[in-house]
Amino acid sequence: MSQATATTAHFAPNDLEAYWMPFSGNRAFKKAPRMIVGAKDMHYMSSDGRKLIDGCAGLWCVNAGHSREPIVAAIQKQAADLDYSPPFQYGNPKAFQVATRVAALAPGDLDHVFFANSGSEAVDTALKIALAFHNANGAGSRQRLIGRVRGYHGVGFGGISVGGMVANRKTFGPGLPGVDHLPTTYNKEQHAFSRGEPEWGAHLADELENIVALHDASTIAAVIVEPMSGSAGVLPSPIGYLQKLRQICDKHGILLIFDEVITGFGRLGYAFAAERYGVIPDMICFAKGVTSGTVPMGGVIARKHIYDAFMKGPEHMVELFHGYTYSAHPLACAAALATLKVYEDEKLFENALRLEGAFGDAIHGLKGLPNVVDIRTIGIAAAIDLAPSADGAGKRGYAAMEEAFHRQDILVRVSGDTIVLCPPIMITKDQIGEIADKAARVIRAVA
Ligand SMILES: Cc1ncc(COP(=O)(O)O)c(C=O)c1O
User: Fold this and answer.
1) Which domains does the chain have, with CATH numbers?
2) Whose CA is nearest to atom 7 of ligand 1?
3) From ligand 1's centre to the CA of 120, what distance in Å?
4) In the predicted model, what is the mean pLDDT of residues 23-36?
């Protein structure tokens, strides 16, 4: 830990009331806070001075590891050189460099990058581009958007409408009109304890044909899916599923959007899952790993024909009435360039691919521990489903998170009674063993 970290290690705020924490049990947290004050590489430091291994890359984002020197230095220098520049009608050189780098990492003719500041904004941007693209092509009747049950696409109104996680939708009104959903790809009987892409389930993509039959292709703009659903608990696409979706979308002139906010930048051993599956979507949403979580940045990579559809009319006119004050923020661009260089220099995507087997072995080794009812692994991502305890759904999961943080010195992500593990992809084989051992202790402790 740095000097600065050491001196702040015992700092704790004395009033927790004002901060309304996102996606958190505020009252439970404030009774027994899990306070983090420092980070380096694979570890966090808690406010009581303990070093915890990061089992969830922050929130699926710190792929390159924490507070890495080249990224820190790039952000510091950028803050001194150019703190902010307006992205509407003006440019900063690094924005163009990041776009070029990101486009080069994406397969096929995914050549153009539109910047946002988060996954949620990336998703709303992609959905809006899809609608505007059809409009620009004289197909304005294509207004329906198709998501998937158990999908997670952030928390904007667009994202929750196409998303399919019940709790994220049910208290927020009707959402966007004209949205439909494909069925989830997860089937416990067919998939339990599977590694990588399950063999069963490609046929579930055919459900898109039924949706087309119901609404007519002329009303459908786009389908959005995560190649691997992370937030719903690591649900990889079945073998052949994404290829089928691509074929059906092509047949009906429907755009296919991959939400790669989690799968982008190495989580599955490639820059993008699109490459792993050999399927080229029309747009890719990214965020998180592009800056290794250091400065907020998100965006959409669009294929050439999409960008070209907008590049007409008087040249001085705005082509797409969309953008954010902080699109391509200089600090985010500096962080992204430095992060992408770390991925390349340290061959971190390759590291994830090389260690996928060892990670899968270690986590599947937890099968048989008390209450473990399913385990799924792919890339450097795993979910361990625990049976709910008698006192209610989510109680065992919450207890697991508390046990992990306060007593086993590991940060895990918990969704209901599922423990999710998705550490930084700079991980070593020994650290995989350490994470699996700590997870085993947590699971036994909450039996
Ligand atoms: C697939 C996917 N899309 C979108 C988002 C939303 O990203 P953000 O929280 O940056 O808005 C997430 C966040 O986990 C995600 O997993």
Assistant:
1) 3-64+347-445 (3.90.1150.10), 72-345 (3.40.640.10)
2) 119
3) 6
4) 96
